[in-house]
Design a protein that fits this description.
The protein has 299 residues and is α/β, with parallel strands linked by helices. Helices cover 42% and strands 24% of the residues. The protein has nine helices and twelve strands. Strands 3, 4, 5, 6, 7, 10, 11 and 12 form an eight-stranded mixed beta sheet that branches. A two-stranded antiparallel ribbon has the order 1-2. β3 (90-97), α5 (106-117) and β4 form a beta-alpha-beta unit. The chain is rod-shaped, with a radius of gyration of 32 Å.
């Protein structure tokens, strides 16, 4: 059964007139009549009653009209869907992110803009460490991740997304807690609390490099899997830490956030995907990432 037979039948059944249906379909009346005859022969059912004065639907013809409309609508929707997917306007995308990326406003703004521009796209967010994200990228569980560079992976592409300064996180009772700004070397004698390399490769390396640049090697007294846990350990007096500025949003009565004067250390967040394995939808999402990063840099 050909789709053109269904379209022809729907036109005739709706107009109940072969000439008007032929004009509507932009074909001559004789080919239209032959198509309806072939359709009835294929079905083994009379769909239309024809007289010189009028055309009417049989009861099977009335039922088949509804089915034909449904079939054609499903075909049109399927064609529209694959075309929108090819343009990156439909489908689903899974996104991995470290917990710290959710503290700032950049990712929520990105997701809001993307959803507004792509309402037919389903977005699944997965909170993962950097190592978990890399594994998920390789096996296809996510298509893009948000991580702190640098990454020791040759098979990925990075698009810079955000850049913010590190700030010192001190117990409220610390002698420097009331300062507006301190040099990093002022914390040389304090034990440090960090996130382990397995959870944040770029973040830990950046902290260590900053301390070395300030002239000391930090004593790492405690490690925590998540930034809220780091802040909790600082509040409990286990040590100090360096965290992205967005961590200020996690206000805690037992800690103070103090800006660094020297060195000024900035931590980056990048969108990461496997190199050479993009889809139109992923390209559209990464385009939005690049657009927000550009606007933020200009601002």
């Amino acid at each position: 059964m050909e789709l053109r037979y269904l379209r022809s039948y729907v036109a005739v059944a709706e107009d109940l007139h072969f000439s008007r249906a032929a004009l509507r379909l932009h074909i001559a009346q004789p080919p239209l009549s032959r198509q309806i005859q072939r359709l009835e022969e294929e079905l083994g059912v009379q769909l239309l009653r024809r007289t010189q004065r009028r055309v009417t639907l049989t009861e099977p013809g009335r039922q088949f009209l509804e089915s034909a409309r449904t079939i054609l609508a499903q075909v049109e929707e399927s064609v529209s869907l694959v075309q929108r997917m090819a343009r990156g306007e439909a489908g689903h995308i899974s996104i991995g992110m470290t917990s710290s990326v959710a503290f700032g406003d950049a990712l929520p703004r990105l997701l809001r803009r993307f959803r507004e521009g792509h309402p037919a796209v389903s977005i699944l967010l997965r909170e993962m460490s950097a190592g978990e994200q890399m594994a998920a990228l390789r096996d296809g569980r996510i298509q893009v991740g948000f991580m702190r560079p640098p990454l020791r992976e040759a098979s990925v592409s990075l698009i810079p997304f955000t850049r913010e300064p590190l700030v010192a996180v001190l117990p409220s009772a610390h002698p420097l807690a009331g300062r507006r700004r301190i040099p990093l070397k002022a914390l040389a004698q304090d034990p440090f609390i960090t996130v382990p390399r397995s959870e944040a490769v770029g973040g830990l390396d950046l902290v260590l490099e900053a301390c070395l640049q300030a002239g000391f090697r930090p004593e790492i007294a405690q490690q925590a899997q998540e930034i809220p846990s780091v802040i909790g350990y600082v509040a409990a007096g286990f040590g100090v830490s360096l965290l992205p500025q967005a961590a200020r949003r996690l206000a805690h009565g037992g800690v103070s956030f103090v800006d660094l004067s020297t060195p000024r250390v900035f931590i980056e967040m990048a969108a990461v995907c496997l190199a050479g394995q993009g889809t139109p939808l992923l390209a559209a999402f990464l385009g939005e990432v690049g657009g927000i990063a550009t606007r933020k840099a200009r601002g």
